[in-house]
Amino acid sequence: MPYTPHTKSDIKEMLDVIGLEKESDLFDSVPAELKVGHMNLPDGLDEFTTFSKFKKLAAKNVTDKVMFLGGGYYDHIVPSAVDALSGRSEFYTAYTPYQAEASQGTLQVLYEYQSLICELTGMEISNASMYDGATALAEAALMAVRISRRNKILIDAGVNETYIKVVQTYLKFRDIEVEVIDMSSDKTDFSKVEEKIDNTVAAYLFQNPNFFGTVQDFTSIINKLHENKALAVMSAYPVSLGMLKDPGSLGVDIVSADGQCLGNYLSFGGPSFGMIATRQEYIRNLPGRIIGKTLDKDANEMFVLTMQAREQHIRRQRATSNICSNQNLLALRSTIFLSLIGRDGLSKMAQLCFDKSEYLKSQLSQIDGLTICNSAPTFNEFVIETKLSADDFLSQLSKLGFYAGINLSNLYDNSKNRVLISVTEKRTKEELDEFVKAVGGVL
Amino acid sequence: MIKFNEEHEWVKVEDDTAIIGISNYAIKQLGDITFLELPEIDSEIEEGESVAFIESVKAASDIYAPVSGLVTEINEDLLDTPELLNKDAENVWIFKVKLSDVAELDSLLDGDSYAKYVNTL
C-alpha cells in the first residue's frame, strides 16, 4: 500500500486542474543547481537485517567514558523509578493531548509540575514547559519586550553561547535590538552592565552560574533594572537551586532553564525540555500551555487548560508565542524525579555537586602547568587552562577513558588552551582521583 | 452625541477629546469580560490601528482606534474590574484620545445607522 492516498488518476486530475504535465513541474521554480538530483539510495531492508545493521552502528558509540562534560546538559543520576513510572501507558505521551480535559491524569501531572517549578524558582507561575533552555530564554526575552513595550534586550556574555545565538535568531526579524555585553574575565562586569541600563531597555538576560561556572550576586543590577522599569531575566541551572538563593528572592522577573538535569538522560544532546516561570502579574504574557485547577459541575476538583486567550488558536497572530504544546514526557519525568528526591534530596544533590567540584578543583590546581581560571566562587563547573592546546588535552584524556570537558577554544577568543569541566554527584572519589592522575600524566 | 464605528467602538466628543468605549452589542456578543489590555498613555494612535485588547470567557478580540490622536487617559478601574463593561458598556469609557483630525468623526456612524448596521449582522 502506498503511503499517500493519491492514486495515479488522482494526481493526473490535480495536475490537469493546474495545467501541469508531471509532478516534477511543480518544482520548476527551484533553480536546477539547487536540486539534489538522484539520491542513489539503496533498496529497503527487512526488519531483522536493519536491526543487526543498526546494532553494529550503535556499538560504535562510546558511552562508558567518565564524563566531565557540562555546559548546559549534565550527567546526573536518573533513578530507575523515573523510567518505570513515566513509561506507563497512562502517562506516556509526547505533548499535551487534544481534548486535554479528557486526560485528567496528564493535566494533574502538569499542574504538579508547575507547582514544583514555582517552588524551585521562587516564582508565582510556571507554564507546562517549553522546548528547551535556549528557546525558553528567547521566549522570556519576547515576554519582556511585550511587558515593557520596549524593544532593546541586553544579554550578558556569560550566558551559554548557543543560547545567545538562539535568542538572536528568535529576535532577528522582530525589530528588537539585541546587545551582548562583553566580559573580560569569567565574571560579569557589573558597572559595565549598569551603565547600559536606562529606560529604553526591556530586559537584561543573564545566567547564574554563568557558562564558565562562576556564581555572582546580581542584586545591584536587578535593582538598577527595576529603577528603570526593565525586567531581570535569569537562565538558571535547576540543580544549583538546591543550594543557591532562588531567583524569586533575588528579585528576578522571569526565570528560564533547561530541564534535562532533572531526571532526563543526556541522549547525545536531546530531547530536553525548557522551563519558564514568572510573577503572577505577567501571566497573560507567559507563552505556552498553562494548567489550572477548578471544580466541575458536581464540585469535584478537576484540571483544565487555562488562560488560552494568550494562545494562537484563539488570539491568532497576536498570540504570545507560536508554541502550541509542551514537552510533556520530559516534564513528566522531571515531575517524578523532583517528587522522588524531594526538597532535601535536591539540596543534598546540589551539595554533592559543589563538594566534588571543589575537591577536583583543589586537586587539579596542584598540578604544574594547570591554572583554574575562575576568579569567583563556582557551583559545579570551572574553567582550566593548561600548557596544552584544548584539542590536544581533550584527545589525550579521551584515550585514557575521560571526556574531560568542553573545548572552549571553539567558542571564545584567547581560549586556545581552555577547557570547561563539570562535576556532578555521579562522579566517585576514585574517578576524580584517577582523573587527576591522568591529567597530571598528560601535562 | 455618541457615534460608532463598524468595529463596535463608540466615541463621545468633549472639546478636542474623544472618549472611547465598546458598544453594548459587542459586549453582549463577547459575554463575561475577564480582562482588558489598555493602550499606553501618551502614545500616538492611528485610526484603524489595533490599540487595545479585550478578553472574555468566549473570545479574545482587538480594540481598534476609531479616531487618530494622542492617548491622554485610560480607565484603570477596568484593569481590576473589567466586568463593569458587562453592566453598561456604553456608559463605561475605556480610553480618551486628544483628536488629531476632527474630520475623521464624520465617517463614524450615528446611533441609528449603527443600530441598522448591527441588524444586518
Kindly describe this structure.
The complex is a heterodimer of chains A (443) and B (121). Chain A is an alpha/beta fold. Chain A contains 13 helices and 15 strands. Chain A folds into two domains: 110 residues, Aspartate Aminotransferase, domain 1, CATH 3.90.1150.10; 259 residues, Type I PLP-dependent aspartate aminotransferase-like (Major domain) (Aspartate Aminotransferase, domain 2), CATH 3.40.640. Helices cover 37% and strands 15% of the residues of chain A. Chain A has a seven-stranded mixed beta sheet, sandwiched between helices. Chain A has a four-stranded antiparallel beta sheet with strand order 11-12-15-14, covered by helices on one side. Chain A has a two-stranded parallel sheet with strand order 1-13. In chain A, helix 4 packs parallel to helix 11 and helix 5 packs across helix 6. The longest helix of chain A has 38 residues. The termini of chain A are far apart. The model of chain A has no long low-confidence stretch (mean pLDDT 94). Chain B is of the alpha+beta class and 121 residues long. Chain B has a single domain, classed as Beta Barrel (OB fold (Dihydrolipoamide Acetyltransferase, E2P)), CATH 2.40.50. Helix content of chain B is 21%, strand content 39%. Chain B contains four helices and ten strands, in the order βββαβββββααββα. The chains are: A alpha/beta (443), B alpha+beta (121).
Keywords:
heterodimer, A: 443 residues, alpha/beta, Aspartate Aminotransferase, domain 1, Aspartate Aminotransferase, domain 2, 2 domains, 4-stranded antiparallel sheet, 37% helix, 15% strand, globular, B: 121 residues, alpha+beta, OB fold (Dihydrolipoamide Acetyltransferase, E2P), 3-stranded antiparallel sheet, 4 helices, 10 strands
